Amino acid sequence: MWITELRRRLREHFGEEYAASWAKDFVLPELGGVSVDEALKLGFDAQTVWKAVVDNQGLAPKGY
């Protein structure tokens, strides 16, 4: 998965205005206690990051 696809999915789930803030500020235990943005800077694969978001938010895996 490309980072642009991850960002698109975040906007789709959280909305255009909230997605960037959520990715910056929300800490995911599934990623070792870092945010989406921090995880990407640390070199986490975008697919791994998206799976952590799906697991954390209880999103249905269907379509994701």
Description:
The chain has four helices and two strands. It has one domain (3-57). A hairpin with a 5-residue loop joins strand 1 (27-28) and strand 2 (34-35). The chain has 64 residues and is mainly alpha-helical. The radius of gyration is 10 Å and the shape is globular.
Major sheet summary line: 2 strands, antiparallel
Distance between the termini: 11 Å
How much helical structure, as a percent, in the residues?
Answer: 55-70%
Q: Uncertain spans, ≥5 residues at pLDDT below 50?
A: none
- How many strand elements? 2
Query: Number of DSSP helices?
Result: 4
**How much of the residues is beta strand, in percent?**
5-15%
The number of domains is 1
Sheet/helix structural class = mainly alpha
Radius of gyration: 10 Å
Spatial strand arrangement across the major sheet: 1-2
Mean pLDDT: 94
So what's the overall shape?
globular
Which H/E pattern describes the elements?
HHEEHH
Structure characteristics:
two-stranded antiparallel sheet, 64 residues, 6% strand, single chain, mainly alpha
Briefly say what this structure is.
58% of the residues lie in helices and 6% in strands.
Topology of this structure?
Elements: H1 3-14, H2 19-25, E1 27-28, E2 34-35, H3 36-41, H4 46-57
Antiparallel strand pairs: 1-2
